[in-house]
Specification:
By secondary structure, the chain is mainly alpha-helical. It contains 9 helices and 3 strands; from the N terminus they run H-E-E-H-E-H-H-H-H-H-H-H. It has a 3-stranded antiparallel β-sheet.
């Protein structure tokens, strides 16, 4: 018996949901880093060698996929060190603090919130500032995103979502669906207003936690 496919949402905070396509794609985003010791048999994987047996010498600069960086990161053994991507550095945090709405998040990184939350897995003295900026950016942009989604009925929304990261685009779609459902109900084209799938799934999750 076939069942409808329901997209799986991304994880929360520093946790990933490996059933989520968004989290799988986000984990492929690369981090600048440095090899603090020799890395055997990783040269081909990181595009720095032609043979699978080649090692990456200590001190080499790297572009490491997030999933691999998390696997190699060890607070006790210095295997790799990870640098902050520029959008999370102090200069850009100042821009976000001044006016987060002017930033094209999709161009800077389509998974700004998710990727930034994953950076908190690495020991960095700037982690508190990064976390605060991510939260403040979301709060500052949320109002405009939802206002836009509620005032765009039967319109081309491609321009409205072009500057949004993937989480913001999902929120915009939820707002659009709520608007369309309300318009249909108001015109008598729907028998009743039902809770959104996000609310329903959240309720099911809470029930599962209680039962567990």
């Amino acid at each position: 018996m076939s069942e409808a496919y329901f997209p799986v949402g991304p994880g929360l905070g520093t946790e990933e949901n490996f059933l989520s396509l968004d989290d799988i794609l986000m984990s492929q985003e690369k981090l600048p880093g440095r090899a603090e010791s020799s890395l055997p048999r990783l040269a081909v994987l990181l595009g720095q060698g032609a043979a699978s047996a080649e090692s990456i010498p200590e001190g080499s600069k790297l572009e490491i996929p997030l999933w691999l960086a998390k696997g190699l990161h060890d607070s006790k053994r210095r295997i790799i060190s990870v640098e902050l991507p520029k959008i999370y550095k102090e200069a850009w945090r100042t821009v976000f603090s001044a006016d987060a709405n002017v930033v094209d998040l999709h161009k800077m990184g389509p998974y700004y919130y998710g990727f930034g939350s994953q950076l908190l897995n690495f020991e960095n003295p700037e982690n508190p500032e990064i976390a605060q900026t991510i939260l403040q950016t979301f709060v500052a942009r949320f109002r405009r995103i939802m206002d836009s989604s509620q005032n765009a009925y039967n319109e081309d929304t491609s321009v409205l979502v072009a500057r949004l990261d993937q989480l913001e685009r999902a929120l915009f779609q939820v707002g659009q669906k709520g608007l369309n459902d309300f318009q249909s109900w108001e015109k008598g084209q729907a028998s009743q207003i039902t809770a959104s799938s996000l609310v329903q799934n959240y309720g099911k999750r809470k029930l599962t936690e209680v039962d567990g």
